[in-house]
Structure formats: structure tokens, C-alpha cells
Amino acid sequence: MAVWLAGCTADISKQKEAQKDTANLQVHTAPDTADIPHNEFGEMVRYGRELIINTPYYIGPDGSVSKNLNNKMSCNNCHLDAGTRPFGLNFFSTHGRYPQYRGRENRILTLEERINNCIERPHNGVGLPLGSKELVAMACYIKWISAGVPAGERVYGDGAVEVDYPADQANVENGERIYALHCSECHGAEGQGVWKPDSTGYVYPPLWGDHSYAAGSSMNRVLKAARFIKANMPHLKSTWERPLLSDQDAIDVAAFINDDRIHPRPQKRNVTNYPVAKYKPIDYDRGPFMDTFSEQQHKFGPYQPIIDYHRENGIPVIF
Ligand code: HEC
Ligand code: HEC
Hints:
This protein has 319 residues and is mainly alpha-helical. 34% of the residues lie in helices and 6% in strands. It folds into 2 domains: 153 residues, Cytochrome c-like domain (Cytochrome Bc1 Complex, Chain D, domain 2, Orthogonal Bundle); 157 residues, Orthogonal Bundle (Cytochrome Bc1 Complex, Chain D, domain 2). A hairpin with a 4-residue loop joins β2 and β3.
């Protein structure tokens, strides 16, 4: 196992440099599910994995256990292969990095609270009670995945790939073209996705509209989405080793999907995202900001001038 980047630094330039120097690194892999222990802990790990793959069946709007989600997406739609795919928003090193300060809430969150974050934003729902069997089961599974990863450290293959930032702002029209060429066959012309035959979830999850992830989700940020898309979409044609889209095309299509002027999505009421301006990610688009750039530029770029301004003025560069 290659230990890659210590700590939970938020400075993207350091992450980018670390990822460029990876020629000799072995990508990390998750443990084999056949090795999940046959004891009480193992039972919870299995249930947690099941919840992450078939989330709405258990806790969706028609859930058999509870109705915490407000859409029928699965964790697995974004945390690919149940959170075990390299550069597919996996959980390789997640367990050992919590509790952790989170700018979106401006406080320290435990792993369970971080899971609830995804239930509240991408799933547009209400968090599970702390200590509930379902929340504990998902935490057990996430712990099991990170077996052998030193607490607080990152491994090569974590999270998502990096992208280079174009000199100009993201080109939404090019994004529309890329979408029609490479995405709409599965996600639909209206970004609505395709249901499973029994409507318990999606074969192809939605990318915008009432049933998709809510505003304020990480996937709603252009750079974050582009990093996921580059290594993993179009599904089965792109891999992190052989991405099909260029960085520019990944950013443009992420901008097209997340352009709320043309593609509305659920808005969370009564929640404040990133109450402290200093800790806003550079591609988060709601002011006030510590810098002088517009909401439009935070959303669509060009990002480099924002990054440079933050560095020059001692403002954290957060992604
Ligand atoms: C629409 C996509 C989407 C869905 C659905 C989703 N997540 Fe996430 N999740 C993300 C993104 C994006 C991040 C941020 C990853 C990053 O910052 O690198 C994230 C982060 C997390 C983290 C923190 C990871 C870390 O290493 O810090 C956890 C834990 C998590 N999600 C759990 C879940 C669980 C459990 C579910 C289902 C109940 C879920 N997520 C559903 C997109 C999603
Ligand atoms: C062959 C079908 C297919 C194509 C083509 C495809 N996707 Fe996907 N996409 C999927 C599937 C399947 C998932 C969920 C993965 C899972 O559940 O295992 C997904 C998940 C996603 C997600 C995260 C979940 C969500 O709904 O927000 C995003 C974002 C996404 N795709 C964007 C794209 C973009 C952009 C393109 C074009 C560049 C694209 N996809 C092309 C099948 C496809």
C-alpha cells in the first residue's frame, strides 16, 4: 500500500503536485468482501455495504426501514463500486480522517455526521439519528474498507483525480455538446436518468432536476464534479488510467450539468453552507467571499486568478 499524502490539507496545489509525481506508486485497493469477518462487526459491515449499494430501498422516500432520503439515488451512484473504486470517490482513507473540521458546517464532524451530510445534500433528505443501526452500519463498512490505512493519512487512488484549470471560464456550450455526445444516452436528454424497472432506484442516476442532488452538494461544484467525471464517465468507457474526456471537456460538461440558470435542482431551505467566507472552496459560488471575484467566476472560472489571489493574501485555497 502506498501512503500518499499525509493529513487532510486543503491546499489543492499540493495535492496536484503529489498526484503528478506518481509514476512509481501502486494504486490502493480495498479489502476483499470475502474476508468480511463472521462476527457481530462483520454483520454490520455487510449491512452497511448493502445500505450503500441499495440506499433508497432501505431509507429512501418509500424505504422499508425509514424515509430519510428525499430522492432515490444510492450512495453507490457517486461512491462507485460501493466506495472501493480508485479515484471513484472511494472510502479508502475516510475512516481515519474523522472527526474533521468541515467548512460547510463550520464545526468538527464525526464520520457519522459526515454520512448524514450526504443524506442531507446529495440525497436532499434528513440525517439519520446518531447511533441508529443504519448509520452505525455504514460507518462500520467505511471503517472496514480502510483496514491497514494509517489514521489521518491518504493513499494513492483516494478520492478523485486532479484536473488542470483552463485559462478561460468553463464553456457551457461545449459542455452541452459533450453531454449530447457522451452522456445523454444514459442520463437522458433532460438529465433525468433511467429508473430500475421496479422504480426502487436508478440504472442511470439523474444529473439535474427535482430528483437529483441538491444545491450545496459537492457534486454541484464544477471542479469537484469534473474530477469525478474525468476518471469515471462515460461509465464503462472511461477509467482513471484512460480517461476519455480531456480536462477541458470534463470541466465544460460539469459546468453544463451544474449551471442552475438552465438546470434547476432542489434547494435546501434553512441551511447555511460555508458560513465563514475564509473556508469556502474556490468553486463554491455563493458570496460573500474573502476575495473580489464574482459568484459567476467562482462557479465557472477562470479559477487560477482566484487561487493566486488567495495565496497572495494568505487566504486558504480550499477545494
Ligand atoms: C451525488 C453524489 C453523492 C451521493 C449520492 C453521495 N455522496 Fe457522499 N460524497 C460525495 C462527494 C462529491 C463527496 C466529497 C468527496 C471529496 O471531497 O473528495 C462525498 C463525501 C462523502 C464522505 C466523506 C469522504 C471523505 O473521505 O472525507 C462520506 C463519508 C460520504 N460521502 C458518504 C456517503 C454516503 C454514506 C452516501 C449515501 C447515504 C453518500 N455519501 C451519497 C458525493 C455523493
Ligand atoms: C453507459 C452509461 C453512462 C454514460 C454514457 C454516462 N454515465 Fe454517468 N453514470 C452512469 C452510471 C451507471 C452511474 C452510477 C454508477 C453506479 O451506480 O454504479 C453514473 C453516475 C454519474 C454521476 C454521479 C451520480 C449523479 O447522478 O450525479 C455523474 C455526475 C455522471 N454520471 C456524469 C456523467 C457525465 C458527465 C457523462 C458524460 C461525459 C456520463 N455520466 C456518461 C452511467 C453513464
